[in-house]
Amino acid sequence: MAEMDTSSGGGHKKGPGVKKGKKLSTRVDLTPMVDLGFLLITFFIFTTTMSQATAMKLNLPKDTDKPEEQTKAKESGALTILLGRDNHIFYYEGILDATASNLKSANSKEIRDVIADKKHRTDEKDFVVVIKPTDESSYKNVTDMLDEMLINVVKRYALVEISPVEEQVVKLSEGGAAAPAGK
Amino acid sequence: MARPKIPRKSTSVDMTAMCDVAFLLLSFFILTTKFKPSEAVAVTTPSSVASKVAPEKDVVLISITKDGKVFLSMDDVSKKQSLLNSLNQIRSAGWSEADINALAKLDFWGMSIAGLKQQLTLPKDQQTDKTLPGISVKDTANNEMNDWMRAAVSTYSGGSMNLLIKGDNESKYPAFKAVKQALTKNDLLKFQLVTNPQGVPTGTDLYKANQITKGGAPVE
């Protein structure tokens, strides 16, 4: 209370007219505004360059019915990848035998090692990967597999229609794979 | 010794000029940026390690949506007109000159050839992948994409056509297969799949190959 009295008394001492309002500077510090400006610039630069679509090249073999024109692949160097539903991947080396005992299952991560392993085991000019998507597989599965070809630098690969036998085998294996999980 | 008095200068710099520059650049970038047009055909593309940027000229783009509907679009209006003209001849669709001009103005085509004129009757904001049925490709015997591609081949004969396929992650393989068959039938064996860029996983063969070329040491 005492303090308030002195301050008010001091103000009154000078009397009316003598009291001077402090003159404030009109200059504002613009540094934060500059910071903000450059922050937005960097934001726009980064966001604009990121969204560029790329394209993956794909060359298809010519449709031909004549067997002598079709591309031949050595059995020992062939790796066939079958794409099933729900991202299931099956593969076999060489030719699928009658009981489908050489058909193995893999997930999207394991298949990379499978391809790399097969590539290092076989002679480069014999190595060929055959990709056979079933009707149940998605477009993403197909492009992912073509991407794996790029990642593993597979020189020769082909996108081939699946045969009815293989389709049957994939269907059975998918059923078989689902059954143990259900138990 | 009496030293001459140097007036002490303030260290604070006038930021106004810098602020001007910053906002000038900002407005420049905002105004020059092309905003992605809200796409009538919504497609989420898969990602790949392919680093080649998709071409933007002489593009023939086939979009596959997640329901398996197929749409076709092109960038050049005059090329669109000649494509429609040759398609008119191939299928004898009976389009008049005015029809073809109107059809060429559409951003994309997404109907069977017989019903394509119906797309003109729809207002622009209703021409989306939800409302339109897409080009019919499912029927193997009567795959209309065949005729579209035949028309495209005759339009771009002599020139180079950049054939792009933009498929949705979730679209099933048969739609892509049908498009692929239409392309191979017309001897269009080289095309490109539109993808999102993605980093190369470490330790793979491509990663090693990239390391060598980036290091500047030419092999062989």
From TrEMBL, chain A:
Keyword tags: Cell membrane, Membrane, Protein transport, Transmembrane, Transmembrane helix, Transport
Compartments, as annotated in UniProt: Cell membrane
Record-linked InterPro entries: ExbD
Keyword field contains NADP: no
Biased segments, Basic residues type: 11-22
Record's signal peptide: none
Molecular function GO labels: transmembrane transporter activity
Lyase found in the keyword field: no
Gene Ontology BP annotations: protein transport
Membrane topology, record value: Single-pass membrane protein; Single-pass type II membrane protein
Record-level GO cellular component terms: plasma membrane
Transmembrane segment boundaries: 36-56
Annotated region described as Disordered, given as residue ranges: 1-22
Any Pfam family the entry gives: ExbD
Family label: Belongs to the ExbD/TolR family.
UniProt protein name: Biopolymer transporter ExbD
Lineage: Bacteria, Pseudomonadati, Bacteroidota, Chitinophagia, Chitinophagales
TrEMBL record, chain B:
GO function term, MF aspect, one: transmembrane transporter activity
UniProt keyword list: Cell membrane, Membrane, Protein transport, Transmembrane, Transmembrane helix, Transport
GO annotation (BP), single: protein transport
InterPro entries from the UniProt entry: ExbD
Subcellular location: Cell membrane
Assigned GO CC terms: plasma membrane
Topology in membrane: Single-pass membrane protein; Single-pass type II membrane protein
Pfam families, sorted: ExbD
Similarity comment text for this entry: Belongs to the ExbD/TolR family.
Protein's name in the database: Biopolymer transporter ExbD
